[in-house]
Amino acid sequence: MSITSTEVQLAARPHGEPTETDFRLVRTELDQPGPDQLLVRNIAISVDPYMRGRMNDTASYVPPFQLDQPLGGGAIGEVIASSVDDLPVGALVLHDFGWREYALLSAGQARPIEPAEGASPTLYLGALGMPGLTAYVGLFDIAAFKEPDMVFVSGAAGAVGSMVGQLARLRGAQRVIGSAGSAAKVRFLTEELGFDAAFDYHDGPVREQLKQAARDGIDVYFDNVGGEHLEAAIGSLNPFGRVAMCGSVSGYNATEPTPGPANLALVTGKRLTLRGFIVGDHADRQPDFMAEAAQWLRSGELRVQETMVDGIENAVPAFIGLLRGENTGKMVVRLR
Ligand code: NDP
Q: Whole-model pTM?
């Protein structure tokens, strides 16, 4: 007996900000699992900024999404039929076939997860998943954070940024500064996550707001945003400062190439290091990250925030909303 599944397909390549007409919901039929396959009912799907790049027809570190085909991305699902002995019915799995209600997977495409008692499986899409590992690798390996560095992170109230600030604080940062896109997010950073200072980048030039918040400069900048933020950070970095170039979400919907920092020449005189990275290259750090992050979660020292949206029909609005800053913490679509 086949199963009917609704999936989100790419109907057109977005120009600038995506619109709902760039996508369509399609009902498909899935067969029961064949040998070495499992059928999974997705319970939560991840919505991530990098998906915007995959909607363009350009070569990158991940292949572009194909027109008239389902989108993909991280998801948590429950196995509902299986011919794989170690992934039986009822098991929870993490996989890359999100943006659909059901997925027919081969054994190697799914990884079992076992959330701690009482913990939400969606943690594996955020704090204990790809965004958490991104924060960990970017801060500790790429930016070579060491106590008592002073750290600035942009996109600070998002999935990656909220982890970066907290990890820096927990590992002994002298000062943690964040920027975000609203007064409510700024309060969240200082009142709930323990940031020493935060500002809303809409409130004035980032360069001036950062100078005000970081009177003794910064040693590390974790860049989620690019553009004006990167230029401001270069201006505030102390000699031998390091930048983890994680992403540049301010330009993801741009229709023209975005200009680089006008003060790049400072990199030489200040002996700065700017280093890009892709989390997928750092899977070897997963065990260290999980051990440390899980312990901080258990002790309550690490706070997790999620923005939940319900239903596959709301996945596209959630994605458009993510790029507009409608999320605090990890944006997740929960499926019934
Ligand atoms: P977030 O949860 O941070 O969501 C995206 C956020 O971007 C929004 O909430 C919004 O917050 C912010 N934003 C949107 N437009 C702008 C703008 N013009 N200027 C400043 N901020 C803006 O997403 P993630 O935590 O998942 O990702 C954060 C960054 O990390 C992204 O750049 C992403 O591409 C990158 N990334 C890189 C990885 C790697 O391997 N290198 C892996 C994972 C993520 P606000 O309200 O504050 O504007």
A: 0.98
